[in-house]
Amino acid sequence: MDRFDQCHAVTSKWEGGWSDHPDDPGGKTMWGVIQATYDAFRRSKGLPLRSVRLITKGEALEIYRKNYWEACGCDRLAPGVDLAVYDPAVNSGPGRSLAWLKKFQAQQLSSAELIRSICRARSSFLQGLKTWKVFGKGWARRVADIEVQALKMLSAATGASDNRFKEIAGSTAEHERTVAQQRTKTAKASGGASAGAGAIPAATTASHVDWTAIALLGGLAAIFLLVALYSIHHARLAKARAEAFEGAAA
User: What is the spatial distance between Cα 111 and Cα 225, in angstroms, rounded to a whole number?
Assistant: First the structure.
């Protein structure tokens, strides 16, 4: 069964309409389709090039189906797994999404674990991008939502009751809230330690500076700062997952 329409309905919610954000390497984008992709599509049809802002919904759907859904073989995947593969293909490229799929398929995971593993790998990849500081909050919410919707699709396809899914979602949300709180506390503690480790005593004069000690303090400050940043990132992801699962449990 081809579930393109159902999966794309979830993805399109995150792609939105017109965008030309200065920090987005894709540049001008309409309904998630960038100008370069639209140019290639128009050329393949023997049509004159034009602004992607003029793309029709029919053209956009044709691009999505061919370039991402079919390119990743999503029509051959289990319900939920198809969405977990399709959405990152749209967001980060089909090659990367297929690589994650093949990696975790080789581990013979269940469909549920396959969904979770792809979403975790996707989150780690996005955190490593320079644009995470700009788009990170939205990406975290998107990945969390895709995970929830994919698991919900899988649950429905396997005959699990809606109440059972809501029960699992509620338990997961509670766990993620706890993780978010713990990560936030760690970030605050590490941030304070970083400031303290990097400070030079006011009474120190240039003639009495112990440069070895200063270097050591600087190294410790850097370590504490990295821990703080790592914790902030993971607190954000845990919060996003908690909110997404809470919505599913409602």
Answer: 37
- Position 214 scores a pLDDT of 63
Residue-wise DSSP of 59-97: HHHHHHIIIIIITTTGGGSPTTHHHHHHHHHHHH-HHHH
**228 and 137 in one domain?**
no
Strand-pairing partners, residue 30, are 18, 33
Neighbours of 151 (CB within 10 A): 25
Domain shared by 116 and 18, yes or no: yes
189: CB partners within 8 A, 6+ apart: none
Q: What is the pLDDT of residues 5-23, one digit of tens each?
A: 999 999 999 988 898 888 8
Domain co-membership, 131 together with 25: yes
Q: Residues 69-81: what's their mean pLDDT?
A: 96
CA pair distance 83, 12, nearest whole angstrom = 12
Helices (H), the chain: 4-15, 35-44, 57-64, 81-92, 94-105, 111-127, 132-157, 162-198, 211-249
228 and 241 share one domain: yes
Same domain, 229 and 243: yes
Report the C-alpha gap between 129 and 133 in whole angstroms: 9
